[in-house]
Design a protein that fits this description.
The protein has 218 residues and is α/β, with parallel strands linked by helices. It has a single domain (2-212), classed as Alpha-Beta Barrel (TIM Barrel), CATH 3.20.20. It is 26% helix and 24% strand. It has 7 helices and 9 strands, in the order αβββαβαβββααβαβα. It has helices spanning 2-5, 58-67, 86-95, 155-167, 170-173, 187-196, 207-212; strands spanning 8-18, 28-34, 54-57, 72-76, 99-104, 118-123, 147-152, 176-180, 202-203. A 9-stranded mixed beta sheet has the order 3-1-2-4-5-6-7-8-9. α2 crosses α3. It is globular.
């Protein structure tokens, strides 16, 4: 463990907020946003995490998280798995007793993620411009503790997501989340499609944006 804690990560921000997405929505959560991402989704709302940040020792990250006195932690980005030491961070946070989730694009391998971590895999629909980067073999690794998220910008994205769920039997594997791209797809329309098709998915809005708008660190 000492050698793990000596590792460093590039960190954009660490903050305490309300989880706005996934089945953990509404829970007070500490977010660790790592810097860097190999994808460039056209609707990305965290482009500020693509570069910059600060180099922080892994032990200091764990200490900063502990200072918030919050059991639930989400490691996000950017694309957190783009940093090799993200895996060590996840282990350290679990060892510290936190309930940990990882928000990942699904473009990078998830097989080495600590099994105690809930992996929230964001499959990229065609409207993102990055759907060719999806690593489909990740889906065979998913368990009931993981989740798959689809962010959808159009009816075409919706139809694509439904087909992907059925082809890869995602409804039987883990919880599936559908959410609209803010300002591009009417949330009520997406909700109606889900109901019309009797889909066993969780419709979600980004609760943090409902509460605070597009504010960095929320």
């Amino acid at each position: 463990m000492p050698e793990i804690l000596d590792a460093t990560l590039r960190v954009t921000e660490i903050f305490h907020s309300i989880q706005g997405e996934s089945s953990r929505v509404g829970l007070p959560t500490v977010f660790v946003r790592l810097t860097g991402c190999p994808l460039r989704c056209v609707w990305c709302d965290t482009a500020y995490a693509f570069s910059g940040g600060e180099s922080v020792a892994l032990a200091d990250v764990v200490q900063r998280v502990a200072a918030f006195d919050c059991a639930t932690v989400c490691v996000t980005g950017g694309e957190p798995l783009a940093q090799k030491n993200c895996l060590s961070l996840l282990i350290a946070l679990c060892d510290a007793g936190h309930s940990v989730s990882l928000e990942t694009s699904g473009a990078l391998a998830i097989g080495d993620v600590d099994p105690r971590v809930a992996r929230i895999v964001d499959l990229k629909a065609p409207g993102s411009g990055e759907h060719a980067k999806n690593r489909w073999e990740n889906l065979d690794l998913l368990t009931a503790r993981d989740e798959v998220k689809f962010v959808l910008a159009s009816r075409e994205d919706y139809d694509w997501a439904v087909a992907a769920c059925r082809q890869h039997r995602l409804f039987e594997r883990c919880p599936v989340l559908f959410s609209p791209v803010q300002g591009q797809l009417d949330p009520a329309q997406l909700a109606q499609w889900i109901m019309d098709d009797r889909l066993p998915v969780r419709f979600q809005l980004q609760l943090h944006k409902v509460l605070w708008g597009n504010v960095k660190g929320r």
